[in-house]
Amino acid sequence: MRLRGGAAAAVVLVFAVAGCKAETTVGSGGPEETGGSGAALTAAESLTVKGRAPKTGYDRDRFGTAWADTDSNDCDTRDDILKRDLEDVKFTGGDCKVSYGVLESDPYSGKEVTYRRGRSQVDIDHVVALSDAWQKGAKYWDAGKRIALANDPLNLLAVDASTNRSKGDGDTATWLPPNKAYRCTYVAAQVAVKKKYQLWVTAAEKSAMEKVLKGCPGQRLPTGGNPTQAPPRFHAD
Fold first, then answer.
1. Which one, of 191, 225, 204, 172, lies nearest residue 50 by Cα?
2. What is the distance between the alpha carbons of residues 205 and 69, in angstroms, rounded to a whole number?
């Protein structure tokens, strides 16, 4: 199991109790650094609590063109995450467009999943769903911040498509990965994204986050990823 969702390679120590395995992993493109022991729970406790705003006005286009190259590396964001999270990667026409790879241990289901371009069983999940973000602060942002969130590696994860479809736009209160060993890492990632982008949480969501993280009190907080403002050349409807 790999901690994914940042921008630069790092060695990540994941502590776990009650369903989260203790391990040391080297994540390709993992977080630049992690907070101290217990930082994830502390961060969760600090999140602002408000009610969920109406979904009125939400549209994927409000977060810009899907998979924009906001880090200007000449590869789109989807391929960046596939390269980061898959093993045995093969490309078509250069070293950007991923044509094949293996998700050796899908974080959501724990099973091995093969990626083949055009008939993929792999999704790139927004750990904090964009519609959830919209209802918890993002509707009030400018386009540059929304585009940044949609393409931030801290908020992106290659996962099994069928398992991901069951998530929808759920938050921690309504959906957790079936793979219980990944739940501490998953919730810590959601907390990290919400803290980084100053998104609020509902009371039920915060309670659910704290419940999971109290079961792994040493869980660290992933950090890193891209800036919270996309370059000005990117636009959203």
1. 204
2. 31
